[in-house]
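Lecture 7 notes: from sequence to structure.
We start with the chain below.
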Amino acid sequence: MSYEQIIFEVKENIGIIRFNRPEKKNAFSPKMNREILDAMTRIEKDSEIRGVLLTGSDDSFSAGLDVDISFLQTMEKGDPDAYNEIHDPIQGWYRILYNLHRATVSAVNGHCYGGGVVPVSLCDVSIASDRAKFGVPEINFAHFPAGGTSWALSHFLLPKHFEYLCLSGDRIDAEEAFKMGLVTKVVPHDQLEEEAWNMVKKLANKHPNAYKTAKTMCRMTRHMQFWEAVELEMAHIHENYFLTEGEMVKIALKQFKAKKIKTGAGETYKKEK
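Predicted structure tokens for the same chain:
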């Protein structure tokens, strides 16, 4: 399927989605959201795709929801069908991105505002260009960060940072976003795509079962008491052993000690058994 408002390709088992409405700072339109949802659904169903890389075209990652074609206008019209037409696709691809057990990386190449912050937070790793700018300006037009934006900020930032961004509508640069914990690292602009590509390939080459379990534990244990987390982790050790056919003990630990790690494809044990 060809797309009009995104560029989608699969390269070396990595699905690359580039938001492509540069004249609108890659703001999410209903059409763009439907196209992203379609691409993300294809990725989700294709087990050969081991990772996802999200980025934007021109000077922007995404300016968030297109305010000229948004929930606000459909609420004013009182048309539930029109509201759902806008709401459902974006929440649909957010859900796939969040639940995907494979590697997800965002390369923030420029302006990233409002709802554009959400996929940055949903990805496992987010790398920002030193030219990137971030903000949630909704308070400046008598609104508030919604549709997952409040969650995206409150989940990773300290309360005073989160509330400052939401209540002021101010923009911050990439270094400030890094200090607040919104992105993983900041790199020179001309190195962004190479850094992001190397990162998604590194993550995608980890053992798929181990990656799935590690990702799940990172999210779940954050909200638990210490001993609850220990018990859950120990239970998942047994699950991971079963799903890898004992590879982590029979093969992977030996390779790790010998500094010859080859378990990324999840096929080592089968080849050597």
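Points to note: The domain at 6-204 is CATH 3.90.226.10 (2-enoyl-CoA Hydratase; Chain A, domain 1). The mean pLDDT is 88.
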